[in-house]
Known about the structure:
By secondary structure, the chain is α/β, with parallel strands linked by helices. Helix content is 42%, strand content 16%. The chain has 25 helices and 23 strands. The longest helix is centred in the N-terminal third of the chain and has 30 residues, at 141-170. The chain starts with a strand and ends in a 6-residue tail after the last helix. The structure holds phosphoenolpyruvate and magnesium ion (MG). The site of magnesium ion (MG) has 4 residues, from helix 20.
Amino acid sequence: MAERRVQVTSRLGLHARAAANLVRVAMQFQSSLTLQRLDGNAEADAKSILSILTLAASRGTELRVVAEGADEQEALDAIVGLFSRDFDEIEKVNGERFYRATNELRCKGLGVSDGIVIGRVLRLQEGTHEVYRAHIADADLERERRRFRAAVRLSRRQLEAIKNRAEKELGRGHAYIFDAHLLFLQDAKLTRDVEDYIVKEHSNAEWAAKVVGDRLLSIYTQINDDYLRERGSDIEDVIQRLLANLTGESPRYPNLSEDAVIVSTDLLPSTIAELNLNHVKAIATDAGGWTSHMAIIARGLGLTAVVGLRDFYHRTRTGDQIIIDARSGEVILHPTGETIEHYRFTVHEPEPTVETQTKLECGPVTTRDGVEISLRANVELPTEFQAVRDFGACGVGLFRSEFLLSRPGLMSSEDEQFEVYKELVDAAGEYGAIVRLFDVGGEFGPDLKERERNPALGLRAVRFALRHQQMMRTQVRAILRAAAAGPLSLVIPMVADVADIRLAKRVIEEEIERLASEQVTFSRVRIGAMIEVPSAVLTAEKIAAEVDFFELGTNDLVQYTLAVDRGNDKVSEWFRTLHPAVLYGISRTIEAAKHAQIPVIVCGEMASTPAYAVLLVGLGAVDLSMTPAMIPRVRSVLTQINASDVRELALKSLAAATADEVEDLVKNLSLSA
Ligand code: PEP
Ligand code: MG
């Protein structure tokens, strides 16, 4: 046996990356290698990263290294050498020594709502399912262990692939996180404990992995060192991955702390709908753009959000302190005390709340030259219904009903939907509400396992409804029944032409006949078409002859007219709402509706932006539907304009050649929101 005393001198102590290096060196020797704290508090196996981290050896900690075996002297020399070289982790990133725990990391994205929030990171990967305990019979125990080992192997392959990619795209400085994950995964302390648990407790592998993972996590939460305590999130990540691979499903959401800032690569709108929103303070995602559904929801709920942060997620750990500044689109990880102080003085709630507004007007707004404009609300979740009245909306111009399918693939029954639509009718009052048939597919995947290669151009919206008619019929029946309680209309999303309308209307007529023959109380509804793809714009006159109203979805109209994926941050520069081609589509649609004497409601995000709303009025729009919280601002701006003056602006914009030119024209408007 050989032993030597060492001291931890590196600034971050014996943290995950250092421990990973230590394990790698220790593994090269046959001898057993033990690390003992000189204060007698703990002892660790130098070949187990989990064990090393529980030493909580911060800077200055003294340890005894004990080696025993054939090559004990060489092993001891190698380990002591590694301590003296601060675990070989001096690494240059951008020419500087990289300390991710102490360096403030600023990242610029796109602020899609208002507000500044100081909170703690909660990393969220799209979703794991509940883990249940199952009893495994003696005869099946070996099979269960094999199943667990297979999940470990699969997780390892996935992590290796992620690590390689991270190395290429982010450099070794970031990829080390996955080294640590790989070591956790291979750590006998984890794998042996899970297998032992399976056998002793006759437990299924999922449950065993969860119990062992929870135990390890609880050890970490007790560690008296901030940095090391936070490494618990690495274990959490690995366990989640294992569980996902065991169940074949994705991980679910953890409990939220009071000041949770959700950090994710991409967040499904349905995930936001499922979160406990009392606790979520903000959202930061790698993907997304201004009109991605996640951004729309965040605005609707008044959540501070920054999207399009690209490779930010992998730099964070659950528990990290973070500042989200949606006004500038900046997020700051590990902010210094000074930065926090600075922001403490500027932190404020996202939107002016209703209480802070002195007098809130409601109903339509009139321009200075007497043109009346209806301001309606776009809502996604029943929790937003109250906002319709609070912000003085003329009813609900668009209910994005697909958010009722709060988890992908989970269907609300006819009765459940009926209750929600009835609530909607109550909330909307005399002006009524428009329910959009489920706009699933595209961003809102009904079954993520079957994601299409090009979902925006795939089986989305009305196409999905026509292909899955049972789902459509259930929804139509619920809408027709709720319409008996008050003014309710139905709009068909993403129609490409008259053929889509005719097919959809036939299904609706059949359900009307069925309800009548069953003697169920219902009422006929007005049927509208969402105009949001170029083919619908180009055949708008023909569609107008078949429907009661139009809804102009400017978000998709921009996406499809300019061929720019609305959720892809890499092409966000090309997503230009004020592009003359888009304005031409809007103008053409409004003219076709006027000609057919049917109303047209503009319900994309464009209507929520005061200066753009002015341009819409110039293009002839008199019915706008928007995020409820934006109604007071849009109202205020529209009271300052003459519709005839902004008509001039619209004509000049239509004649412009580029989005830049239109933006310049709009910037010259002097209006105060
Ligand atoms: C639109 O496309 O503009 C629209 C209103 O619908 P969504 O954003 O839900 O696609
Ligand atoms: Mg749309």
